[in-house]
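hey m, so remember when u said the tokens were messed up on ur end? i reran from scratch. heres the input so u can diff it against urs
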Amino acid sequence: MPGSIKIDDGSGNYTILTNAGSLGSDKTLTIPNETATLATTTATDLGGLVKLQSATASSSSTFTFDNFADSSTYSGYRVVFDSVLHSADNNSLYFKFRSGGASGSDMTGTYYRYFNYITNTSNGNSSGTQTNYGYLSSSHGQDTGESYSFNLSLNLSVNGMSTLEGGYFYKRHDGNFIYYDIMGSLNTTTTITGLKLYPSTGNFASGSAHIYGVKK
């Protein structure tokens, strides 16, 4: 039998689409009262994770994301690297927190690093500090098969210790495989508004990076 689809925004506003074919019975589709546009290929807000910024590398010196932090809206963030490849061999991955909103600048101070690792030949753990930058991982390569992808949790404190942490697996420049479990942090009373990720030497030859907010 013919049926109809009722599109209702939940506030008493609706429209009805009539289908001359058989739906079995009338159907109701409720659309939440959100400001985001929902589309299968472009949606950025699906209720929990909100895509805030993206960057694609092409011999790029950094992935820099400014003015995405909003403590009133987001409880945390996710940093996603997708198939990133370095342009120089035996390379490290660094980061810096940023402040100043849209006109962001690198944050100075003592960055702390704690990590565990395991390779196909060894394992261990260590900690340390760096002045004016954070240290995530080392021994990245530039050859085919040495790109890497990962998800890190970014936790920004309004007044205290902010961290970038998570685990990821990649192929090192020497052919060995390694799993890193890393936490980089900075203790600051300055509001963090952005993040910069960059290689110790050379560029990001290819790949992309993305920032997602975790809605409260």
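this time it looks ok to me. The radius of gyration is 22 Å. if urs says something different then somethings off w ur setup not the seq
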